[in-house]
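cron nightly-structures :: item 1 of 1
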Amino acid sequence: MFQDVVDLRDFYQTPLGAVTRQLLRARIREMWPDVRGQSVLGLGFATPYLRQFRSEAERVLAIMPAGQGVVHWPYNEPNLTALADETELPLQDYSVDRILMVHGLEGSDHPGDMLREAWRVLAGGGRLLLVVPNRRSLWAQLERSPFGFGQPYSAGQLSRLLRNHSFTPLRTARSLFFLPLRNRSWLRAATGWETFARHAMPGLAGAILIEATKQVYGAMPVKNQRRRMPAMVPVTTTATSSLSRDTTPE
């Protein structure tokens, strides 16, 4: 079950959410240092991590699952988000170069179908970057952050899941080594703790990041007969005015 989009949005407006975004966004950027001329799709609730790509990517858009809900993004700019069934994306085959999936896979009741759709819309050799809760971390045990909801994974489980759906895992990284405490003094020290624990205590990581490439050989993963292609549902400013009063326009 997906966490409600309003709860996700509200989390990233808190001090804990702001530090989470800062540290995880830096790790994502390390893995994707250059997306010039490419199309980037955010799946799940990836908008807190997409802004950094907008100045260089050919285009950036976000699709939020129907079970989660959708909010307008970017704040005070033309909308780039849409609501869709995560297993029936309203995009053409081979239409995007990179997919960033955050707060997505762990909430889906059909993670295999979600990965099949990611495979379908990715261009040949396209890259998928998954960000999911680490099942061995304290983050996965506490509901004070979105990483405490849904199905957490280990790196080995993610790798097998990707291989079973025609992706080749390339590399794995970890982030969110600081404990998810709301104490402001602790949050100010989070960056230093992150640097230390990343090397000294890798098992503490709250999030696992795994990058995979689309296998372009062999048959496309088998899926039940598709329903007719769903229509894209844009978010209008009027429909979301009460939800888009975001004090942190990320």
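cron nightly-structures :: done
Residues 237-249 have pLDDT under 50 and may be disordered.
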